[in-house]
Amino acid sequence: MNSSIFPFLVPITAIICWAVVSMAKHASGSPKGAPQPDPMLQAALTQAEAHATRLEERIDQLERILDEDIPGWRARNAR
Q1: Rounded to whole angstroms, what are the CA distances from 27 to 14, 16, 32?
Q2: What is the pLDDT of residues 27-57, one digit of tens each?
Q3: Burial class (CB in 10 A: 0-12, 13-18, 19+), 43
Q4: Its domain of life (predicted)?
């Protein structure tokens, strides 16, 4: 390798690393001063999560009933 390139390798490497880190921070994080989430939207999401939890509990209960009443129903209905 040509020895005249060596003094430029460190600054070029530093610039490339800085650019990659900056892009990663920008892509993964929200900018500072981002608006706060809407309280109505937050309440709706909380309500939807509670509803989904109740539905999961109902499905679990129905599956337990089917397991007791119709043994092997899972294997017959598997695709």
Answers
A1: 20, 17, 13
A2: 776 556 667 778 899 999 999 999 999 999 9
A3: exposed
A4: Bacteria
Average pLDDT over residues 52-69: 93
Residue 55: enclosing H or E segment and its boundaries?
Answer: helix 39-69
Q: Which two tokens stand for residue 56?
A: 């999961």
Nearest to 46 by CA among 38, 58, 35: 38
38 token code pair: 């809407």
* Among candidate residues 29, 27, 28, 9, the one with its CA nearest the CA of residue 17: 9
The residue assigned the tokens 């600054």 is: 11
What is the pLDDT, as a whole number, of residue 15?
82
**Secondary structure (3-state) at 28:** helix
Are 67 and 73 in contact by the 8 Å Cβ rule? The answer is: yes
Smallest CA-to-CA distance from 5 within 27, 51, 13, 70 is with: 13
